[in-house]
Amino acid sequence: MSRTEKTPKSGFRKKSLDPQQLSAFIAPQIDLPPDQPRFLISRLGKIGDSILTMPVACALREHLPGAYIAWAVEEDSVPVLENHPAVDDVVVMNPGWLASPNRLRAARNQLHRLACDVAIDCQGGGASALACFLSGAAHRIGYAGKSVHGISRWISNVHVQPVFKHLTDRSLELLTPLGIHKPTVRWQYPIAAPAQRWASRYRNTFSSNRIALLNPGATWHSKRWLPERFGEVAQYLGREYGYTSIAVWGNGLDHALASDIVLTSGGHAVLAPETDLQHLAALIESSDLLISSDTGPLHMGVAVGTPVIGLYGATQPGDRGPYGQIAIQKAYESGSRRQRRNASNAAMCAITVQDVCRAIEQMNLPAIYQLQAA
């Protein structure tokens, strides 16, 4: 069963709230070593969740520049974290690390060698909490209340009751026991120079000086918007604003969806070349607009500073929206995570082409006649 929600006018966040305003009233609870405190961030989720948590590492580095910062993560997210300027080590939790005593012992040895003083469970799940425990850190910061699941509530020994709902904001609240209040939200997403040069060369192959990326793919079918609607949006962007749209893709199904966008775009969209995560990030960074469902590339767009429009159906932008940017949701697939994952994309289909075009209008892009006059 879906419920209808009002389409946001200028993003999903309440502009009157400072995401860390209330944390200033919380006194530090942890005395850190005077020299080089050592931290473990435990966020084992997929690419999008890892990106949304990046500001935690950035805030630690800003406020404690001499600190050692490690991040425990699943293999899929390694490419977005390695070479991050705020992260000293990326600890890969191999698939099945919880499956047997031997694998659990190997994970414990891997984490314990880090000799961390503080472990921060940014996920609030059993596995992420266990990674904190296995590290041997004396101080294990975690959530209290509804943001915690399973054994996490017993493993953490420093608890923070989050005030805010968005994943990034509530993750930053976990730093309040360290005396870090109202940190600047930044991502510092790492993109290698060769990937940036490739993206620049690729962009220069188009005669248009305005590029939009359209991302139809998603792991969940319930997160996918119809490719023909993306195609209509590409037509609108081309006619009204002089944009060339590029349909990006990451696997075989995504390729088919992206190809359908091109076929229905009336000549206003092209198919992107195959890219890895580094080259995709560089391509997003070099573009002027990204329209995507709730997937890793959407949050990548926020992290590299590209204007984005997020399309939501099976998830809610108040929880995992494009931070500080525009999100559209007309209906929501209620139910458990498994139910929402296996649902149809009816909630996504409630978003019309006109909804997206109105969101584009709110961005005050220069119209095509203004571009031609310039």
Report the structural category. alpha/beta
Write down the CATH topology of the largest domain: Rossmann fold
List the domain count as a whole number: 2
How many β-strand stretches? 14
Low-confidence stretches are: 1-17, 19-25
Q: What's the mean pLDDT score? A: 88
Q: Widest sheet: strand order?
A: 4-3-2-5-6-7
Note the run of SSEs as H and E: EEHEHEHEHEHEHHEHEHEHEHEHEEHHHH
CATH level-1 class of the largest domain: Alpha Beta
Just name the CATH architecture of the largest domain.
3-Layer(aba) Sandwich
Helical fraction? 25-40%
Describe the global form.
Answer: globular
Distance between the termini: 50 Å
Plain-language structure description:
Helix content is 37%, strand content 16%. Mean pLDDT is 88; it is low at 1-17 and 19-25. The strands form three sheets. It has a six-stranded parallel β-sheet with strand order 4-3-2-5-6-7, sandwiched between helices. The chain has helices at residues 47-63, 78-81, 101-112, 126-134, 152-155, 167-173, 193-203, 227-241, 252-263, 277-286, 296-304, 317-320, 337-341, 346-349, 353-362, 368-373; strands spanning 2-4, 38-42, 68-74, 89-93, 118-121, 139-143, 158-160, 211-215, 244-247, 269-271, 289-293, 308-312, 326-329, 331-333. α1 (47-63) packs parallel to α11, α7 (193-203) packs across α10 (277-286) and α10 packs across α11 (296-304). The protein contains 16 helices and 14 strands. Its EC number is 2.-.-.-.
